[in-house]
Amino acid sequence: MTILAETSTAAEVLPSGPTPPAWLGPFDRRLSRASQWLNPILVKEARQALKSRQFAITFALLLICGWGWSIVGVAMAGPGAGYTSTGPGMFVGYYMILAFPLLVIVPFGAFRSLASEQEDRTYELLCITALRPRQIISGKLGSALLQMLVYLSAISPCLAFTYLLRGISLPTILVVIFWTSLVSLGLSVIGLLLATMSTQRHWQVVASVAMIAGLMILFWIAAMISVNMVMFDSDFPVNDPEFLVANGMLLTAYVTYFVLVFLAAAARITFASDNRSTKLRVVIAVQFMCLAAWSAGIIAYWKAFDWEVLLIGISFMLLHLFVTGALMTGESPELSLRVRRSLPRSFLGRVFLTWFNPGPGTGYLFTVSFALAGVCAAALGLLSAGVALVNTGRGPSQEENVLAFAALGACYLIVYLGLGLLLVRALRRWITIKPEIAAMVNVILVVLGCVVPMVIQASSPAWYGSRYSLLHITNPFWSAMHVSDGPGLPFETAPLLTLLGLAAAVVFVANLPTIVREVRAIRIATPQRVVDEQSSPPPESPFVPPTTAG
């Protein structure tokens, strides 16, 4: 009793520490909960990247080169640097210094960050965590973005210095740096997608060599384009509607393709039973709608029409649908239980959303539907711009050329993708077909369709030296160019459209059993165990913020 009494008395005598403010405890707890929302992959990659020797060397060289070019550039300008237009020349030097780490170092670092995990077998450790594939990709992409911002912050004062030297406008500097940053981020996500293509070390070495070679070529191309634009047109017409429309179209294409590649990279590293296709098909549908909206908006705003521009747009649309369709026809025809539990349930949902379901048959139907919709959209655009065609002196023959070109391209798309789907379905009896192999099969079919008629023409005395004929009906490129080369339609147009239309109908009917079997897939009930797991709240973090004794 005496010891307890003395201890209590001593505790009363000892002075207590300062009492923290009342708001500090709740604020600390909120910060603790907010920190749990940070991507752990981003934190790990940022620490590794910013502490690496590669980053230190690159950042030091960036500063040294920027400092050196500042001295050399001002010395070359001479005493009249403040009175002459030396800004474009100085900007080109600073841009070359900045573009190399942005277009080469950062994308290749993003590629190696994921490729090294595949090589060292450390990715399996990430798979068993609660992190989703999109979190892994976004974390590594965020690390690349952080490095890009560090490099930009180091060289941005030098870029502002070029504006003071005259000869270059501030919007020009901002536009060039803006697009260079977007290209750097886009190349980084492409590098992440390329890193997921194979887990074999020798293929990763091949991909690394291809990646670095491609980045060097793109760096040189971007440097040349930027130098020509700055040196010969140092004041961009930012108020010109055509300039704004062109940048808006490029930005729309960039955003949609960025999302498409990002989701594709996440789908490559997800588990096998997950739905890897629906989100990608939704993005492709959005891309088609954006292309149609921009085309209609341009025709409606300028009240003019250029059939050559429409031919380029149709060609790009068909090429895009062929590439994506070749990959979709290589998907597995078997739906996992997880995917079947998420199929559309209502009648309207099955009517309008079934073609977004995974599977080669639904992918083929998806591609065919959008190809035919593109032909119809082109026809409506031509009809709505008929007055403009007459006012500009272009006759109806060129309008017919565009329609024939679009219809011919859609028929070729249906035929080659359908034949590829039939061949892939036959090959699946003996070997495992991945989407990349299916895409190669479709490319080989197109190459054979172009090369075989040329070989026959070159080896036959009756055909040697002749121009286009129906012998080249399997060549989509020569046939499309021959039909679109106006004015007036060539006499081969009618038999071409007739024969290819019949071939497209036959190939589509041949693939109809596969399409019907996948379309008839119905939704299955979710097991009660899975429902209980999905409805249960996530476990709380074991971290408890310390409390301060009063």
Helix content: over 70%
Annotation, overall tally of beta strands: 0
Radius of gyration: 30 Å
Order of helices and strands: HHHHHHHHHHHHHHHHHHHHHH
Class by alpha and beta content: mainly alpha
Our count of helices gives: 22
Q: Can you tell me the overall shape?
A: globular
What is the beta-strand fraction? Answer: under 5%
Summed over residues and divided by their number, the pLDDT gives a mean of 79
Low-confidence stretches: 1-16, 387-396, 540-550
Distance between the termini: 26 Å
**How would a crystallographer describe the biggest sheet?**
none
Quick summary:
With about 550 residues, the chain is mainly α.
